[in-house]
Structure formats: C-alpha cells, structure tokens
Amino acid sequence: MEAARKADLKEVRRRLDAEDTSKNRAGYGCALYATDKRRNIAESIPYLETGVSIGDTVSRLFMADAYLQGKGVPKDPARARDMFLDLALEGNADAQFAYGNLFYLGTDVEKDYDKAYEFISMAASQNEPRALNTLGLFYLGGLVVPRDIDKAERYFRRAEERGNQNATRNLKLLQKHGRDYDYSKAVLRIVRLSGFLS
User: Helix (H, G, I), strand (E, B), or coil: what is residue 92?
Assistant: First the structure.
C-alpha cells in the first residue's frame, strides 16, 4: 500500500512538473495531504489553498480537516465548520457527514443530536458508509429517533456492505447482547470514545 501511494504521489508530481496548472497543483496538494505524514501535510497547504481558490472539492475538504485538527495550519474549528457546512449544503456527502459528526461528538461545539441527525441523514441518503453506521447508532440508542433495532441493523448492514468496519463491530454487539438489551448507555460510550467515527 505504501509503495502504491509513493508511486501515485510521484505520478501526480510528474504531471505538475509537466504542466503547472491550478488543477494539477490542487491534485498534488491532495495527494500530499492524503499521505497523512507531517512533512507532506505542511508541504501540501499552499497547493491545497490553490485548490480552494479554484473551488476544488477535495482541496476544500482537506483544508477544512486541516483547520479542524490544526494540521499544517493553526487550528481554527470555526473556519473548519464553515467550510464543512458550505460543502454540505452543496451536497457533498463527506462534508455532510463531517459537519453532522462535529455536533454528534461535540467537537469544538455543543453536542446537538438533532443537527447531527439532519446532516448525517443527508450523507446516509448518498450511501456514505460512516453516516450509515452512525445512523445505526442513532436508532440503536434511541438518540433523537425512537429506538428501532431493526432499522439500526439495516443501517449497520448497509455500512458493512460498503466496507465500514465499525458497522461490523456494531453488528457483533447486537448479536452478542440481543434485541432486548438497553443500548443507550453503550451508544453514548461509543460516541465518547470514538473521535471521528469511521
């Protein structure tokens, strides 16, 4: 996997060297940021800023993440929230999930399960796996919605079909404890421990 990532990064850099366009600069910044290595993240920021200036969606998502976590830029949760919200309202499922998840977890905002449910539902309607898993948690624990184990299981299965490993864990939890178990405390514990749910 690491070798493939390096080869991809070299290919994107080769394209940039061949033709220095804003689109190629944005692509290179995204490739650098995606490596999640401190040195590459710092180098990625000017390229991502170019991508943001031309409206590149992935560059905008990565910059919002950078501001949220303080990766390569000073931490600025309010700016990250605004960037995620703009993208979410444009219909981007990743941003819808990220924005909703901020309120689900209370990341630099007061927890607001109603707002979280609204945006996570938008992302789930586009089959975003993390959102499907998180909606399953809403139904499993009866957060904002009536407790519905059947719906929770369906959302977990849809998320699992799309490769979400947390959904697999949640299905095993359901199997282990059964349908009559009170999951509300377990769900809140999962929320507290999870950070960004994946």
Answer: coil
